Amino acid sequence: GAGVSQTPSNKVTEKGKYVELRCDPISGHTALYWYRQSLGQGPEFLIYFQGTGAADDSGLPNDRFFAVRPEGSVSTLKIQRTERGDSAVYLCASSPRGHRGAGELFFGEGSRLTVL
Amino acid sequence: QKEVEQDPGPLSVPEGAIVSLNCTYSNSAFQYFMWYRQYSRKGPELLMYTYSSGNKEDGRFTAQVDKSSKYISLFIRDSQPSDSATYLCAMSGSSNTGKLIFGQGTTLQVKP
Question: N or C: which end of chain B has fewer CB within 10 A?
Fold first, then answer.
């Protein structure tokens, strides 16, 4: 597709369950980002990949959160032992460049996670 | 105190009005300044991207950066109902890796 694709668009889970959110970036974009947006707030940075490696994971809130990008394209954000406070929209973005000159970030529509 | 402050609004204006949206920030290391527009249940899309201080114009949109005051603005001329959305300011430091600090967002409604 032409844009950043995120699946699922909506996910409802129970407290304590494991969740995976997938992001398919724009073809050829080397940099990929995960942000989290709570209701009424701006997006908050979680993690940034340049190629296959996590260049900056300083925004991950704790060790329940983990993300991978094994082949430098699709990325998966994994959340273990979900808590109600994890409820938010998880946004993925990609950019044709990452290091020193990211320029425009292209965002997907997000995965809306609700933890009951 | 948040690094980036933005009045959440909502801001309601009549069609054709000039809209002024603003953000203040505390981190003097910020070098890149952006405005994103976000429609309901959609991802943010970039409107304006500026480096350091100065003005930038693109159609009906003008972005201003005043680093001495740590203040940025977005002006929308001849506002249209289709401009109704949440406007997010965002900033990054000199490394500009795409790790952005966003404001809370201002919700704008343009009434026909």
Answer: N
